[in-house]
């Protein structure tokens, strides 16, 4: 069965497009047939694919509309994975992307503002979960500044929400901007770079979550139960 992953956050500027493109590319490098759906009216992922000159590896289409969840099943038939790059602040499109997904990844930058702003997308996801109980959701810390404690602080702050935080984090690296301008990914530039290794680790962890693998305890049991068990 094809798996549908969306990168969503109502807050702009958290690096959704960078992560969506890179996870889609990493899955394609892994031999998967991947469709990247640009659901953001700013169409950054489409711009990226148009700037790309070499073998594309993955198909990219623009679909920034609120009927995504109705259209995706038909589009997904020829692919192993569909990756949706979601819009900030467009509620009906974000809601449709959630309804289309098996897994929602919420990128969060390491700042208290981002942790507070996450409340909006969490509310949308929780609303959708009423209709779609099998939906999985996880945070990923993106644009972390290497060798700083702030990434850890944000992971701690996010634990007050009931969704798990992926153990893989992605750092703020110049390579992401440099490669994007050429329609490339960091994987095209150097598979062994730190940026590529972070993307590969993140993609592997996302695949494990999708495969219901009990990954590093994250999905072993509901977060509430873990919290409850700690109480005297």
Primary descriptors:
232 residues; alpha/beta; 10 helices; disordered C terminus
Task: Walk me through the structure.
This protein has 232 residues and is an alpha/beta fold. It is 45% helix and 13% strand. It has 10 helices and 6 strands, in the order βαβαβαβαβαβααααα. Strands 3-2-4-1-5-6 form a 6-stranded parallel β-sheet, with helices on both faces. It is globular. The termini are far apart.
Q: Any chance you could write out the topology, listing elements then pairs?
A:
Blueprint: E1 3-7, H1 16-29, E2 34-38, H2 44-51, E3 59-62, H3 68-76, E4 81-85, H4 91-100, E5 103-108, H5 112-129, E6 136-141, H6 150-158, H7 174-181, H8 186-189, H9 194-210, H10 223-229
Parallel strand pairs: 1-4, 1-5, 2-3, 2-4, 5-6
Helix pairs in contact: 1-9, 3-4, 4-5
């Amino acid at each position: 069965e094809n798996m549908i992953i969306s990168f969503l956050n109502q807050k702009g500027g958290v690096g959704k497009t960078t992560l969506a493109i890179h996870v889609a590319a990493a899955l394609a490098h892994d031999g998967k047939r991947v469709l990247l759906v640009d659901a953001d009216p700013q169409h950054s992922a489409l711009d990226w694919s148009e700037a790309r000159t070499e073998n594309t590896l993955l198909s990219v289409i623009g679909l920034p509309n609120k009927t995504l969840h109705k259209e995706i099943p038909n589009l997904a038939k020829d692919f192993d994975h569909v990756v949706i790059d979601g819009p900030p602040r467009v509620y009906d499109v974000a809601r449709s992307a959630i309804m289309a997904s098996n897994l929602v990844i919420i990128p969060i930058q390491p700042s208290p503002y981002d942790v507070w702003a996450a409340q909006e997308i969490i509310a949308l996801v929780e609303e959708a979960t009423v209709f779609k109980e099998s939906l999985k959701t996880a945070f990923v810390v993106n644009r972390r500044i290497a060798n700083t404690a702030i990434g850890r602080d944000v992971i701690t702050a996010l634990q007050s929400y009931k969704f798990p935080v992926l153990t893989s984090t992605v750092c703020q690296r110049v390579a992401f901007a440099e490669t994007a301008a050429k329609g490339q990914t960091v994987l095209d530039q150097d598979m062994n770079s730190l940026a590529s290794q972070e993307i590969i680790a993140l993609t592997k962890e996302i695949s494990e979550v999708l495969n219901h693998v009990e990954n590093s305890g994250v999905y072993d049991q509901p977060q509430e139960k873990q919290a409850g068990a700690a109480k005297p």
